[in-house]
């Protein structure tokens, strides 16, 4: 999705710079926004791609879990923040982002309650929080989403470092 968005933006505007995308938000086709959201969906592990994150966090070291569950997953809300001008001009994109965020948050929070290991539970909890960030971004609350993202990354890193000792 992200590759398709970059190719589309380059074809339309001869640039894939975020400032160019946001300045042309009034004339941007809906397909460009949909491709950006699709690219962000995979990175955020939003519904229906939720399962990859807890599986990726099953590595033997806390560092792999920290990378995926506390740092890497936040690239998608960051991408959506960078194209806020494009999103803010499309009611359809806002509705899609809010819907995907809500579905992901509910599905992940229900999944985290039935996990048998700490890393998977924290993985689904991370996905649920990123789903809430998507809802915040869809509603236009970018400052709240930024603070939520920074706070969540810090807190989740601490939890993942602490999880082995919590089991003992």
Describe the structure.
- Helix content is 77%, strand content 0%.
- By secondary structure, it is an all-alpha fold.
- It starts with a helix and ends with a helix.
Summarize the structure.
With 168 residues, the protein is mostly helical. It has helices at residues 2-13, 18-23, 30-44, 52-56, 62-71, 75-82, 84-88, 91-112, 118-138, 142-167.
Percentage of β-strand residues: under 5%
Form type: elongated
Straight-line distance between termini: 42 Å
Helix-strand pattern, N to C?
Answer: HHHHHHHHHH
Main sheet specs:
none
Number of helices: 10
Give Rg in angstroms: 17 Å
What topology emerges from the helices and strands here?
Layout: H1 2-13, H2 18-23, H3 30-44, H4 52-56, H5 62-71, H6 75-82, H7 84-88, H8 91-112, H9 118-138, H10 142-167
Helix pairs in contact: 1-3, 3-6, 5-9, 5-10, 8-9, 9-10
